[in-house]
Amino acid sequence: MPTSKTPTLHMIKLIVGCTSPEMLQDWVAVERHKGVAYVRTRTMPKRADEIVKGGGSIYRVINGLIMCRQPIIGFDSYTREDGHPGTLILVSDDVIPTQPRPMRPFQGWRYFKPEDAPPDLDPTAPGAIDDGISALPASLRNQLSELGLL
Predict the structure, then answer these.
(1) Which of 4, 27, 53, 59 is the most exposed place for a label (fewest CB within 10 A)?
(2) Which residues pair with 72 in a beta bridge?
(3) What percentage of residues in the chain have a pLDDT greater than 90?
């Protein structure tokens, strides 16, 4: 939980091969490290402690749109298949839909400031907006966002 002394810092990362937050939810059930869902990356963020202590999330870009986020619960090191070190971003099982927002492709991950993050579609989340959007299928939300209607 964020504190007034620790500003929230997030991360953002593209997902390849995933077409919807629902598909990501299925992946979360399978991709586990010591019983916890994770996202693989090469480098350990220098601000990892700030992300965890501040209650940061990893925002996920699916097909050119920021579509959802997962709360980050920690980081761990591992050895990649090529023998080099890597980092696991340990995440909550919760895949929280966000208001879709276009995002250009980039490699790796980036830090993501709270003021740049789209609002959650979960109507129970603090500051979230919904208006029934979260009930729409992800493919329809994608199309509406691409048309500039969301």
Answers:
(1) 4
(2) 91
(3) 57
